[in-house]
Design brief:
There is one protein chain. The chain is mainly alpha-helical and 643 residues long. It has helices at 4-11, 47-57, 81-84, 106-118, 278-283, 348-355, 372-375, 377-389, 403-409, 417-427, 451-461, 529-537, 555-568, 572-575, 630-634, and strands at residues 24-25, 28-29, 147-148, 184-185, 202-203, 206-207, 255-257, 266-268, 366-367, 370-371, 474-476, 505-507, 586-589, 611-614. A hairpin with a 2-residue loop joins β9 (366-367) and β10. α4 (106-118) packs antiparallel against α6 and α4 (106-118) packs across α8 (377-389). It is globular and about 70 Å long.
Length: 643
Amino acid sequence: MKNNLQNKRELNNFSESSESYPIVYQGLPIKPLVLERGLFVKRFSSLLYGLCIAGVIGSVAPAQAVVNPGPLQTITSTGNDTLDKNPPLLADVPAPTGLTKFVQNRAVLLKLGKALFWDMQVGSDGIQSCASCHFHAGTDNRIKNQVNPAVLANDTAFQLGGAPNLTLEATDFPLSTDSVQNDIISSQGVFSGEPGDPNGFHVNGIKVRRVEPRNAPTTANVVFNRLQFWDGRAKDKFNGATPFGANPTGNYPKIYKAPTKNSAWVPYDATVDLDNASLASIAVGPITSLFEMTASERTFPDTQLVFKKNTKKIKQVRPLAKQLVALTDSVLGANSAFPQRGLKDKDYASMIMQAFKPEWWDSNYKVDGYILIEHNFSLFWGLALREYMATLKADAGLQAHTPFDRYQAGDETALTPQEISGLQIFTDTVANGGGNCSTCHVLPEFTKASVRRTEAQQQLNGTAKDSTNFANGFVSNFGVRRPGDDPGAGAPGAFPNPSSTAVNTFKTPGLRNIALTAPFMHTGRFLTLEQVVDFYNEGRNDGNGATVAPLGLSQAQKDDLVAFMRCGLTDNRVHYEQAPFDHPQLFVPNGHPGDENSVTLGANGNATDALMEIPAVGRDGVATAISTQNFEGKLGVPQIACE
């Protein structure tokens, strides 16, 4: 029997024209994903109290910051009175305290990080880069071959379309939660390196690209998160080799130091120095994921740009050799080889040697066939990508590029009356008028799981800042999907979260730029913000009835709330791809010629790729805001039309 989604598709008459030691859950390699999508106040506490909070948080919220300034004073606060009533302006997250023990030139480190993030040569297929799943406002808006059959629930059967390579349609959303449907919408990665893909990613026996088991959240503003991934397994202490932080159990990779060029290597515990480094922890996961960037299992030393096609190593690989880089790129422009492809730098090894101190790469020894610069590639990779991703963030103050931040700083014209009404609804808990959003999406980061707030929780309430509990923004059994479909942070023994973490627990995402990052939730269940608001207004139904009491918002109140999120939280630099959100050219797999019933066979025995070009953009951005394709253009997600 066909499920209701298939019937809906036909009735509407639509047709189509990780890691050296991979994370495993129930025998399946889990995709180390990268992230998804709070507000306040009425009474104004004393300045003395505000200064005390600033002193507790330290450099995350400087004492000089204006506490709850300007018109935000008139907005009702409903979160934790001690922690949330007087949110500071958005502030930078400190760099790792011991970064200088490893790095000698941060400008080169940033250049290295941006090049590695966008370089198609990094994937084992010579196509898949980090940016392949994060090219559109830091996320992914492709609509073909983007379905995962819920492999985390041990399901390999596709309910949507019956097979992969489906082109999504607006009528597929919101995803059903009936007893049959548990597919999720995510991002296509690599082909399986196994003779037959046990997870079902093939059409009539021809393998297609695998799709990751959770929706890829945006990389914009991830620097504000304490822990990374939906399940929090990427820790804020970076060990230089894996996402798992300090003292992971078992035989895990290590980094080494050579005190002199001729001395033997010495194992080194990087977590002593590298805190506030969850961006480095998250970076070392996807490159070895069997769903994301690695077709066949490889250790991290083998990912040091040993490419499948040409077997060249980092001393022979020119950065971004397959892609154009704009001469006006905000980080790479001075090194661009335009109109030729790539950078002028002769190889990645030279960039590493400039960025890092010699004791981490300069040695005459070789261990297990690797020289030191190859063995420590995970360290270089993680810290370089951390440096780049840390720049992809919102700014604060009266000149900020996000309307909410200007409003919070005192510009009462930054939000329209409708958006101010939406902000009020966002923060209120009153019956039939309050959205209660800010209880979890705390200002100004718009997530309770932020570095600033978890630090304050630990200082004021004794809650360990890296705990995967509700106080730190991790929510259990939320109603997005039935509890048995994905264990989230409560997966037993898969990674070092506390054993007390409940099954079906997920991190609260930030909401900045949410208008640009459809589909929503870790399952990709919702296509539009209107669908998300309806989900909350109806009591968060996972298919077994409402999880909480309905909100009781009127249509006008729902419209105001959507207007605030769509317009008030959009950073114009993200919208127009301006620095630091400019980027090199990229070609991303966009499904395969054919459909869910038939694909064409390529020369390598897999389905033929259809590649979509993402043109190179310089620091000044583009004239036409993203995007006119895929979710926004083809599926009818409302385009941003803000005053």
